[in-house]
Amino acid sequence: MTEAGSTESGTPTGRAARELLARADGLLGAAREVLGDHGRAVDAVREALDPLLDALVHGELSAIPVSRLKDVTEGRLRIGAVEQAGFTTVGQVHGANRYELRQIPGVGAQTADQALAAAGQIAHAVRDTVTVRIAVDTPDDATTALVTALYRLVEAGPDVRRAVDAARRLTERLDPLLAGAAPARGRLRMLFTGRPDRLRALAAVAGVQAVMADAAERELPLLFGQVSVDLLRSPDSEVAAWVDFEVRSAEYYSLLAEMSGTGPDRDAAEGFLPSGIADRVRGLRLEDARLRVSLRGYQSFGARFALAQKRVILGDEMGLGKTVQAIAALAHLAARGETHFLVVCPASVLINWTREVRARSTLHALPVHGPDRQNAFAQWRESGGVALTTFDALHTLPVAGDCGIRPGMLVVDEAHYVKNPATRRSRAVSGWSQQTERVLFLTGTPMENRVEEFRSLVRQLQPELAPSISSSHGAAGSQAFRRAVSPAYLRRNQQDVLTELPALVQVDEWEEFSAADLLAYREAVSAGQFMRMRRAAYACPGTSAKLNRLRELVAEAAGNGLKVVVFSYFREVLETVRQALGEEVFGPLSGSLAAARRQELIDGFSAAVGHAVLLSQIQAGGIGLNMQAASVVILCEPQIKPTMEHQAVARAHRMGQIRTVQVHRLLAADSVDQRMLDILARKERLFDAYARRSDVAETTPDAVDVSDGSLARRIVEEEQQRLAAEAGPAGAPAPGTES
């Protein structure tokens, strides 16, 4: 055996061993540098964050009466003397010290200590509930310091978490191995080491060799070096940090929630799943080497749910990032060796899916759509990647069994489109899902469906589960429904998991009909034309009360440099609005526009400096389009389905939004608007009670799924009767209704 030789097992000895250990020392040093740089970056954030949290806690404590201290001590604390001394709030007690309290007549050492301890307990509880909101419009020194500190961690990106985790594991493995291999660092030392110790040293060297080989395969030296550099990179200026915050606010807030410990309630983040399923999902480690984005905790859980349960529906409320959760699941499987994935979605979001896959992962996205789709499909079959196609195109492609490809996962976006198994699109999706082990359905609106329709989705995923789901589960309440469908269904909503989301301010703008408005409205009612009734308020633009209020709202937004999205069901109304505003507007978006043109309009709107207005049909803006550049939403009229409004508003009030979102709903008093709100009030309550807690709102089918036609007939009849009564005996009888 030479000086630079090795044992028969391949373990290096002599000079080779010493060189190996020297390289290991260097890698261990790099790992420790990463941990140190990350620790300092985290400390900088905490240093900037703590004063803001302290101020919020102080504000909350200042509103809590001092009498609440007795609740903490179960009535044992006597605070009469403290109150008489002028301490009226918990905040005042918390801000005092033991000496100050003991100066109060009648307050001894024990009372002072108990009062301070009780105030501390309340302060600790309050600290767990407060959330720092970063006001981009009114920056101050404290929030600027926080944004600047967060910048380093955000700029370093998702690699930071991988590097820190890898560095911790590496130090845990290498430290004891290097200690055990110490005799191999010197030729003479190894020579005079007893046989047992020499064998242990050689075993340790072998362990170091294995660790180093694994590190090289995972490119850890490069990762550690890059992350250390990134963690030391400061923004060019405070302005640059604020600009970056506006662009990537969701990532800043995600880190902020993690640092402050004010993340969502775990049960809510896990969709209130039964403990057995939740434990199994938590136990799955998500491979993120192919991801280019840091996941929120609830998003990681959603991706792992899809992987652990294999064939599921992810029904998160819009704005929570269902797309990125699906991409995370695909990236995990790709890291484990899968090569082919298929995404089926509406044509309107195909471009968005393509962009998201390319931006959020290293996966190859390949649109399979349009006249060249057969060639694109052949390319995907040959080379792999993520094939993205539409419901209408899927049935024109070879079926899974014939093309010889079994995707690692099939993702179906807006999966409620395939709730009817008799349709062509459902049959096409079913053909692929039957040949694919892992299937993920995405839909934020399955709660509009009846239980049977929901059951049809589950039947495609976990047929054995479908028979156990009955209408009685909906009637028994959301808890019973969740228990029944938990193996295949996960839903979270914004208020439970996006603790940092700015406020949503909704205002009903009631207007009186002008004389011309009223005449147009009466004519529509007399003709029994429901849709004409809904848009009558815009029939005479010159005197339209709604249009006048819309101009005022847009002018106010322009004065504040805010972007506005105007929604209407009617293209005719949007054209009237476009002409009335008399300024450069984007849109209108409509179902007739090509998907590429829709995205182009939204991109232009988002990129516009300062104020801008985007017009959109509510049907086109409610599915798959992100409009978080807007902070003012105007609804030209109420909608028949509550979820249609929820979807439209969620396009602006979603993850990534950094300002309070104002929603203004334009309503005409004593009109079809009022009748619609009255009738839909019960539907809205049922939606909140069930859909927001993973229930299918099925307790009273006719209350949550009133068809447009029946609702229209009821409203027209009521309005005909009301106007006839107002007109007296001379009121003209109303003809039949328009469906």
From TrEMBL:
The keyword Translocase does not apply. It comes from Streptomyces brevispora. Residues 303-464 form the Helicase ATP-binding domain. This is DEAD/DEAH box helicase. Keywords: ATP-binding, Helicase, Hydrolase, Nucleotide-binding. Residues 549-702 form the Helicase C-terminal domain. InterPro entries: Helicase_ATP-bd, Helicase_C-like, P-loop_NTPase, SNF2-like_sf, SNF2/RAD54-like_C, SNF2_N. GO terms for molecular function: helicase activity.
